[in-house]
Write a structure and sequence with these properties.
This protein is of the alpha+beta class. The chain is built from 19 helices and six strands. Helix 2 packs across helix 6, helix 4 runs antiparallel to helix 5 and helix 4 runs antiparallel to helix 8.
């Protein structure tokens, strides 16, 4: 801390010496006036819940005032080394949630109060006014150098805080995925702060790039877009893990469909920027302990996109649709040869029969409605259905035969995720 001004220091006009001595004598009152003005004018200070903030600010202001007094008394320029205490104070303001603009405004405001205090000292003495004006340049130096030190210290402290938060997020995500207990402390506090307490209903999303990024694009840019879609900086846990974006998100109040809609918009925005993502979303689970299970589901949904961009949410599928996502070698071998030949031959010819069959099923086995939706004459639809029955040996009025045909088409279609699936 800078010591009191030595009254024996030379190099000063006697009138300047009188002003400096008067300022030092009134330092407690000027400091308190500066603190009161900061609390009146700067929102970040008045809104802070930290009970120790006011005392810290008073000590910081007093130290800055002493820099002014000492440098004037020693008749020397202000140096950055005169503000070692500002570095520590900047770090404290970052932790206390005071913004950089508020921090700098408070710094400058305190110097204004000091200047007004000096003017008050010479208010009734016209012979002293010229002397006080000679001190303006020194006060401006304090403001200029001190503000630069404050800004640089604040930005460095902010970067350190962000780096520490990223480390805690990364470690927390690894703990959740590994099903490790989250011990009390910074990790558990972060869980609460992002809406993932023990009773939270949550989903997990997994996203990977469909194509490599180009230019100066990074996966961290994708994280920012996904974070905004999920609900902002302080909702959910979203990190890049190797080449994958993983998001653990509490359920939004409007429901899962709103989350899926927002994520689709985010994926569309990224695609327009040249970053195409395949995103899978798990079913809804209760509590952070279920994150590993939810993550497994999210990966299943993501892989079911089969290398295509988009968003696939498991809760928006039927159980049958989900079963068809699981590409199983045994299931392929169980497909009867006539059904296999039908699907593969029709696909090679453009897929008209399979398209008619799928629309017929979607219309609850009503050929007339299917024909209308396909813009076909009803006789054409009946003809195609007869051809399907002949080639497969299936009765298209039999639920068992229809189900077997549907499974064969899904498994042999060349894609695990048919485009007609709801929610895809």
């Amino acid at each position: 801390m800078i010591e009191s001004v030595d009254p024996g220091t030379g190099g000063l006009d006697p009138r300047e010496r009188r002003i400096i001595d008067a300022v030092e004598a009134s330092l407690p009152q000027v400091t308190e006036a500066a603190v009161a003005e900061i609390w009146r004018q700067v929102p970040g200070y008045a809104a802070s819940p930290d009970p120790g903030l006011r005392g810290e600010v008073a000590a910081h202001i007093a130290a800055i005032f002493r820099v002014f007094l000492v440098t004037v008394a020693e008749h020397r320029p202000v140096r950055t080394s005169d503000f070692p205490f500002t570095v520590e104070n900047a770090s404290h303001r970052v932790r206390q949630g005071v913004s950089l603009s508020d921090f700098l405004q408070a710094f400058r405001l305190s110097q204004l109060i000091l200047w007004e205090g000096m003017l008050e000292i010479v208010r009734d003495d016209t012979t002293m006014r010229e002397a006080v004006l000679s001190l303006v340049s020194k006060l401006m130096q304090v403001i200029e150098v001190g503000s630069s030190v404050a800004a640089e210290a604040y930005v460095e402290a902010q970067h350190l805080q962000l780096a520490e938060r990223d480390r805690v997020r990364r470690d927390l995500l690894e703990d959740l995925l590994a099903r490790r207990d989250v011990s009390p402390g910074s990790k558990r506090a972060m869980l609460r702060s992002v809406g993932l307490d023990s009773a939270a209903r949550l989903v997990v999303a997994s996203a990977v790039l469909v194509q490599p990024l180009t230019g100066d694009q990074t996966m961290h840019g994708a994280v920012d877009v996904v974070r905004r879609a999920i609900g902002g900086q302080h909702r959910g846990l979203i990190m890049v893990r190797q080449e994958e974006v993983i998001a653990v998100s509490p359920m939004p109040a409007p429901g899962l469909r709103s989350l899926v809609t927002d994520l689709r918009e985010a994926v569309g925005q990224l695609a327009r920027q040249g970053a195409e993502l395949a995103v899978g979303i798990s079913t809804v689970h209760s509590g952070p302990a279920k994150v590993p299970d939810a993550y497994t589901e999210a990966c299943v949904a993501r892989d079911a996109l089969n290398g295509e961009p988009g968003v696939l949410a498991l809760p928006m599928l039927s159980s049958f649709d989900y079963l068809m996502l699981r590409d199983d070698e045994i299931a392929h071998r169980l497909i009867r040869a006539p059904l296999r030949r039908f699907v593969e031959d029709d696909r090679a010819r453009g897929g008209a029969l399979v398209t008619t069959l799928m629309e017929y099923i979607a219309c609850d086995l009503n050929a007339k409605i299917a024909a209308q939706r396909l813009h076909l004459h009803v006789n054409t639809a009946y003809y195609r259905l007869e051809r399907i029955a002949e080639r497969t040996g299936c009765d298209l009025r039999s639920l068992a035969d229809i189900q077997e045909l549907l499974i064969a088409v899904r498994l042999l279609s060349g894609r695990r995720r048919p485009s007609a699936l709801p929610g895809t």
